[in-house]
Amino acid sequence: MKKLAIFVLFIYCLLMLHSVSLAGSPADKETVEVKEKFFIQQCEYIYMNAGDFENRIIKIEGLCDIREGNGEKRYYVYRNTPGCCGNDGMIGFRFLYKGDEKLALKDWIAVTASLNIGKDSFGLTTIVLDAMEVTIREERGAEFVRN
């Protein structure tokens, strides 16, 4: 029994070392494309593991939302999801946009951006995509996605 416990511990340590060595590999720095079929899962995974995605390139498509407050516009790329009271949920990301193309509510957009982690005025951690390219698309994907 003691040998089995030592063996299991040894295998666990090997797996941990292997995962640490992969953390800095070039494959980790590839562009992450949020796909329609797994949109909710991929967005949640990025939020839950934001440190692993910091400064990586994220490609995402969805609806455009624009909120104004405190003298600035805040842009979001999102899709509708099931929510607490029916189909009233949303998931996506805020993105920084300094482009020339005029974006409108509910435009279908493709965003290519770098993921940044920061703090808001309350000291809370924020995740924001720093857009390198935002394109309005004629062809739309699924506005409503599910797990």
Can you characterise this structure?
The chain has helices spanning 2-22, 39-48, 50-53, and strands at 32-33, 57-69, 72-83, 86-96, 108-119, 125-136. The chain is of the alpha/beta class. The chain folds into two domains: 1-29; 31-136, Nucleic acid-binding proteins (OB fold (Dihydrolipoamide Acetyltransferase, E2P), Beta Barrel).
Structural features:
five-stranded mixed barrel; 147 residues; 6 strands; 2 domains; alpha/beta; 24% helix
What is the CATH architecture term of the largest domain?
Answer: Beta Barrel
Order of helices and strands: HEHHEEEEE
| Overall radius of gyration | 19 Å
How many structural units, i.e. domains?
A: 2
Give the spatial strand order of the biggest sheet. 2-3-4-6-5
Instruction: Name the CATH superfamily classification of the largest domain.
Output: Nucleic acid-binding proteins
Instruction: Enumerate the spans where pLDDT stays under 50 for 5 or more consecutive residues.
Output: 4-27
How would you describe the shape?
A: globular
Q: How much strand?
A: 35-45%
Number of strands: 6
Main sheet: strands, sense, barrel: 5 strands, mixed, barrel
What is the tally of helical segments? 3
How far apart, in Å, are the first and last alpha carbons?
42 Å
Task: Return the structural class.
Answer: alpha/beta
What percentage of residues falls in helices of 4 or more residues?
A: 10-25%
The chain-level mean pLDDT equals 85
At the fold tier of CATH, the topology name of the largest domain is OB fold (Dihydrolipoamide Acetyltransferase, E2P)
What would CATH call the class of the largest domain? Mainly Beta
